[in-house]
Amino acid sequence: MKLLPACLIAALALSGQTARKADDGAEQRHLRGLLSEAGNSPLEFIRALEKHLKKYPETAEKPELERALVRAAIDARDERRIVLYGQRVLAREPDDAMVLERVTRALLRADDEATAQKALAYARKFEEVMRAIEKQEPPERRNRGQMVEEMGRALGKALVYQARATGNLKRYEEAVALARRGYETYPSAESAREIGRWLARAGRDQEALQAYADAFTIEDEHNTAGDRAQDRARLGELWRKLKGSEAGLGDVVLAAYDRTAEVMARRLALQRQADPNAQRTDLMDFTLTGLDGDKLALASLKGKVVVLDFWATWCGPCRAQYPLYEEVKKRFARNADVVFLAINTDEDHSLVKPFLAANGWKNKVYFEGGLSELLRVSSIPTTILVGRGGKVINRLNGFLPDRFVEMLTERIHEAPSAQP
Predict the structure, then answer these.
(1) How far apart (Å, rounded) are the C-alpha atoms in residues 27 and 208?
(2) What is the pLDDT along the chain (420 residues), one digit of tens a residue?
(3) Is residue 263 domain-shared with residue 375, that is, in the same domain?
(4) Tally of domains in the chain
(5) 59 and 181 both lie in a single domain
(6) Residues 105 and 216 placed together within one structural domain of the fold
């Protein structure tokens, strides 16, 4: 069965809420009837809400319905409606970053002076909102490196959008400067391409060539094969214009590869200042952080059998498992080659210390720091055994109360040099 888009689920919930608020009046019955007829189609869903708003233009639920229309338009990639309903939402909620970004992007698709001034205003507002968010104290959550990455990407986009709008207003040198700021903020194929676009418009073909070479070679998961094909074509066009043939173009591309590799290494280093585990793919390269900020490099445990216990404060089975897990630990207490690590998976880290105190848990706890994703922990409690060579050798998803102690003991016992 095809899943409902998020916008449909939200609107169906909204229809239920409005019905309760208005004692299931005619307006709410009308909305529910239209939604039930829409099925799973985002387009029919949009038409249903538009019909409802046409019949009830002064409905108290208009803000929520227009927000649902924006989300539906995004799902349907309907840029006309993104702009139409997005601007209505922004008139009420000017700091909505998601809507600001999508409306700006949609306006810029026109690529003309008529919409450029409006797009520029939205792009500047988008940057303003994101910089305000950047200054806020981040919550105690996992994946801080990912947060740094996402913030950098958003600010880079804001500057690239400003460059596009400014260039469309024929202010080419200003557009180049904005695009360069976007690249410095968050190096990407999109920002490099934008630099090349406006350098070429300004008649600076040699510099434009370098920018397009950067766009072609930069490691960027958002750079599609089609994008790279266009960059390659533009490179060939500019080089032939400058040199008469494509002879020697390969050297330009190789130089760009070296240049962008260095740029991406700096970006990764910045991300790892916030999260040492950013983009790590080897378990032994991970560093775990304890409750008090102390660090544990898993590489320091290589040569030992490591038992990873993934749990959370809200997990009832984790509480039931705790005394059983402690019993297994006692069996291996004198074996220095077996290490037990309690890995907490709570999104809100501030909940953990009070929970430990309230329940009298004495074990050392580390936050997962992205380890759950690497090891594909999809449910908790999960127990993972890591062998002496640093590779996963066994796992227990969930637990059987009557057999857990013996099962885990046996699996540890089966690991080389792990006998109690």
Answers:
(1) 57
(2) 333 344 444 444 454 444 444 445 888 888 888 888 877 778 889 999 999 999 999 999 999 999 999 999 998 899 999 999 999 999 999 999 999 999 999 999 988 888 999 999 999 999 999 999 888 766 555 456 667 788 889 999 999 999 999 999 999 999 999 999 999 999 999 999 999 999 999 999 999 999 999 999 998 888 899 999 999 999 999 999 999 999 999 999 999 999 999 998 888 877 777 677 777 778 898 989 898 888 999 999 999 999 999 999 999 999 999 999 999 999 999 998 999 999 999 988 889 999 999 999 988 899 988 888 889 998 899 999 999 989 999 999 888 888 999 999 999 988 865 444
(3) no
(4) 2
(5) yes
(6) yes
Are residues 264 and 289 located together in one domain of the fold? no
Q: 305 and 329 in contact (C-beta within 8 Å)?
A: no
**What DSSP character marks residue 311?**
E
What does DSSP assign to residue 351?
G
Is 55 in the same domain as 117?
yes
In the numeric block, which tokens belong to residue 332? 């291996």
Place of tokens 């988008």: 126
In sequence order, what are the beta bridge partners of 383? 309, 396
User: Tokens 């449909």 belong to which residue?
Assistant: 8
Cα–Cα distance for residue pair 87/76, rounded to 1 Å? 17
Active site residues: 315, 318
In terms of Cα–Cα distance, which of 49, 27, 28, 29 is closest to 38? 49
For tokens 């032994």, name the residue. Answer: 284
What's the rounded Cα separation, in Å, for the pair 338 and 100? 53
User: Which of 268, 294, 317 represents a domain boundary (last residue)?
Assistant: 268
Determine the structural domain holding residue 245 and report its residue range: 6-268
Residue 273 placed within a domain? no
Phi, psi of 396 (to 5 degrees): -125, 115
What does the DSSP 8-state code read for residue 133? H
